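Ticket reopened. Same input as before:
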Amino acid sequence: LELIGRGRRQRRRYTVSGLVQGVGFRPFAYATAAALALTGSVANTADGVVIEVEGDPDDVAEYGRRLRAQAPPLAMIVAVAQEELPSTGGTGFTIEPSRGGPARTLASPDVATCADCLHELGDPADRRHRHPFINCTNCGPRFTIITGLPYDRDATTMASFPMCPACRAEYEDPADRRFHAQPIACPACGPRLTLVDAAGAPVSPGEDPVTAARRLLASGRIVAVKGLGGYHLACDARDPAATGELRRRKQRGGKPFAVMVADLGTARRLAELSAGDEELLGGARRPIVLAPRRAGSGLAAEVAPGNPDLGLMLPYTALHALLLGLPGDPPGPDALVMTSGNRSGEPIVTDDGEALRRLAPLADAWLRHDRPIRVPCDDSVSRHVDGAELPVRRSRGYAPLPVALPFPVAPTLAAGADLKSACAVASGRYAWLSQHIGDMDDLATINALTVTERHLEELTGVRPELLVADLHPGYRSSEWALRNADGRPVRRVQHHHAHVASVMAEHGLGAGERVIGVAFDGTGFGPDGAAWGGEVLVAGYRTYRRAARLGYVPLAGGDASVLRPYRMALAHLHAAGLPWHSWLPPVAACPRAERDLLARQFATGAGCVPTSSMGRLFDAVSSLIGVRHAVEYEAEAAIVLEGVARAAPAGPGRAYRFEVSVSPDGSDVADPGPVVRDLATDLRAGVPAPVLAAGFHAAVAGLIADLADRCRERTGLDVVALGGGVFQNALLISGASRLLRERGFTVLRPRLLPPNDGGIALGQLVIGASGGSWNPAEED
Amino acid sequence: MGHGGGGAMSGELVEHLFLPAHGTAGNTVLGDSAVVDVGGARIAFSTDAYVVKPMVFPGGCLGDLAVNGTVNDLAMAGATPLYLSIAYILQEGTPLTEVRRIAAAAGAAARAAGVRLITGDTKVVDNGSGDGVFVTTSGVGLVAAGVEIGPHRATPGDAVLISGDLGVHGVAVLSVRAGLEFDTAVSSDTAPLNGLVAAVLATGADVHVLRDPTRGGVAASLNEIARTAGVGVSLEERRLPVPGGVADACSLLGLDPLEVANEGKLLAFVPRDDADRVLAAMRGHPLGAGARRIGVCVPEHPGMVVARTALGGTRVVNMPIGEQLPRIC
Ligand SMILES: [Fe+3]
Ligand SMILES: [Mg+2]
Ligand SMILES: [Zn+2]
Ligand SMILES: [Zn+2]
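Engineering reply: fixed in the latest deploy. New output:
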């Protein structure tokens, strides 16, 4: 029996690579071995987690299966290699000390409080009952507290909180859910909450700070709340006075506020949620989810004036859960506005002193704690469209998850673009995109880019040898790259090429592949000096050729025409040869003097740049049909236009068509003139705005399919990549994807990264690392 | 091609094309004039070409602009401008009345500035080879002993002063170029600044930098100074003197007044303790009546210019890129 038993023993080494450290992988390996009665060991190494197991061959094989199938929720397994070893006998399963340095240890994003921790939070018998900083290996802060690698308590902002004996025992027990949970804490040893006033003095000392904060919120006050990646400004979202006051103090114009609700049930009452929306809402990443708002939800109108969607999120830390009330708590707001704690245009505030100073005009009280935030990290924003995620802002919960690259690259840094900025570093087969940084207008944001990029280098060990930046001569991000180059080469890449390459890379297209890239966005610098933005590029990673574009119209006065869409409407009317009749809404909206000036500018070209921007066409149509003439945040006119279009009755609507012709250089030019003229005619005839807006969306979707068809005829390509901020429009991306699939195209849609400039750094990386640049060279 | 706008693009041409070609790269301070030692005298030398469109605009014309421009470039080195040369390139068919007007304006400007036009040249080119009248002026002046003025001397702590209203010349030119009219009429501020500089130097203040913010406006001048000296410049947006007519025009055209050209204003960097004295001297001169302190030179953000906004933000003031391109995506 002994002989037979020994003969049937097998020893195997599993090397698991990917995001496998700091996510509870070793206790999982330990518990799985115990469950299968296998002996052996586990250790963190430079390659990932190395496990040796020995026992019955069937069990050893089963172990390998469970490694993949039952891995801890935070683990992201890239590969499992296996190697047969001679049996060594032995008893028990040991967790061995880490070996070989951090190398490519991937840092985990911050993770929403798990169900087990939430249960303990509400359990009066648990020693962490109502502890705002409860966490375990399956949840809690990571990215925002990591100060260095290897990921260890000493290399986090928890270093200044020595563990109490009880926490220490859990931390060291391989069978415990908190084994090596670096941010482990309890009421005895963890961070502490305080509620203070503008002078930093405690508000209602002796009382539970959360209880006191809830009372303030219920009475219509604005409370600054220190969260994971920065401060929020919170107020009761059902209180019009409080919400209106917050909007006034933040000088935020009409930009929507995000709302955090107590639970999924509340979320369902506020918005129409698909199964996918609910999965996003309740998932570990816990972004703000955009979903159609329900009428009569009882939310204050000031939350998102004129916006068809609501941005909802669920609590992602125990503090948030407590703030919204546990079952049995005294009543309080069940929906809180939770907007970034910053002043207009500045990055989110993370430092306690800064919070008191900078948020002084904004908040009535500060609910804060004594655990420092290492890097700012805003909430992510996402939505679910046709069964897949369409990220809008990739930040907390996502960063710094790497994106696997289709081919290895030299250490590279991409600076991103100027709005909704995010940078990225890459080396080998991984790219790491930073969290959302903000708009590069303010010095504080540019400084945040510097801090963010350094932190990213620390976490990833990438030491960039090449920098990549946008071709735009006035981009602050590009100037930042030049300033920080320090002798390293800076490669400049074209904006829309980068949009397309981002989508190609996240879908894993190989180095030699090409696609029909539809890049529709606001504006980007074109090598011909025009403001591009409605482009079809036949694109590979290294080169691209412009296969089609929207017809040029004059964009007068740079950003002025972006903030006042009626100017774009007048430009399109001018280009379409339509007189500026006084009954046309944009004509009525434009002051006489400005109109006369524009007329002369369009006639002479003075102060005008030609643009092929699709985003600006959306703005123009929004104004043309009387929806929005001026905006307070970019893309507002287009977003509201989409909302109007969604209100159109189902069934076939108006059929508008762009006129496509071939230009002398052989590329297609799509003239929006016929669409503009038909819209004006229908408007005059009294066709309601939703029908006009829906007809326009259908026309753009149809144009995408037509241009792709023409491109396929010439190139034989049948893969279409959709990129650029215009594709945040759910109605458009859904309609265009359907049409393209009907015509036999394979559609690549942004799923991991936002289609907007927040995802552009990945494209910059792969283009730059492929040796590509702005030159629209011949097809390769 | 935006290389004429006086910003990043023309800077690139100078840095990557002309300086290497001339063999002067690496040892040239990129000021508007050079100060050299000639037989024991410190001579400032400057040259400039003028191609403004239209040739006549409210408040001036190509002739006085060309003289004032070179007088000012010399004055910004702390020199007393003395002699100018002037060369005209005329396109065949340009009306003589127009040429006469430009030449008369040049002569009047020289008299007003107290300099003499002592040599010159004229060429006529075929119709199509030129575009109206081009004027090139060069000039020399004397720099007094002890005067050491240049962008490299900008020092953290310096007060940044401006002699008056911003953006006036650029808006005046725009208003006639392509027939753009604004509610408030604006005339060019073209003027010789040597008298104002003399008044400033007479205070005995240790003036570090003088600069006339012409093409690319204050934004271009300050960015160049910040980069040359490796310092930061921090402006107070609410202190910037932007007259109503300029503000209105800029808002309609989507321009930043900081990026609009001036032809009769100077920027000065002086030690904080000298600032009041210098301001008083400026205000005592007709061309400096509107002088004020607009910011400070700082050790932070070297090479960058920022403007503190009314909202408490800190907007980055970029080097103008030579044309109006939207950045919003
Ligand atoms: Fe873009
Ligand atoms: Mg000059
Ligand atoms: Zn947990
Ligand atoms: Zn403890």
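The domain at 400-493 of chain A is CATH 3.30.420.360 (Nucleotidyltransferase; domain 5). Residues A 163-164, 166-167, 185-186, 188-189 surround zinc ion (ligand 4) (CB under 6 Å). Please confirm and we'll close it.
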